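Record histidine kinase, 251 aa.
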Amino acid sequence: MHHFIYVKEPRNLNVLTAPSDLVYKEILKKLLQEQSDIKLQHKTQEEQLQQLIKLWSHQMKVPISALSLMAQTGHLDKEDVQRQLLRLENDLSRLLNYLKFNQNQSDFRFETCQIRDILIDLIKKNQVFFLQKDLSLTIDGDWKLKSDKKWLSFVFSQILDNAIKYNKKGGQIIIKIKENQILIRDTGIGILKEDIPRLFEEGFTGYNGHEHQKATGLGLYMAKKVLNNLELDVNIESQIDQGTQVYITKK
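=>
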């Protein structure tokens, strides 16, 4: 919690002319400017947070509407219900993680991690989405490193979510793991060349995000921030209509 001391500028500040008074005047002006900057910064942060909550609420209404329609019509397909509930769970998890990360960026617990195991757990959790689009998946290799399992899982969930969301029906996701590198490749619709440099900007959705109306523009932004704290790099290569390759490497 930040506490601010509000300093009221004397009305007759201009009459202070002695050397010591001028020093005091400069200090006071600096304090007032700093106070103004802090207030503006907090106002901007608050507006960004309100915008984010609004955006996320809109995104979560999609699966809620789908579930509501199923309940009204009595067409409760088990797999479809699972998909919508999982979508809600994933969206809520991302929002909570985003808020947690912004408030406390030192929340990292390092332990020995098996990359393959983390990815397989995520794949199992999201298998309803793989089945829906008839996606095939191959995973090869492993990498044991000291890292934070929870935050690594969060990063992989962002990348896998995009690989599923923007893939073609009957497409592939290929994961290749080796010492110091993870490659997650999909056969999806790809990313425009001019969008690639901006993918990790906060709120940037690009052409694909606008087309699919499913993107908040925070997944890759957060993934990059988290990976930076884990001393890992992320790079993306893509070709339109051929797919995307995401490389995660040791710095």
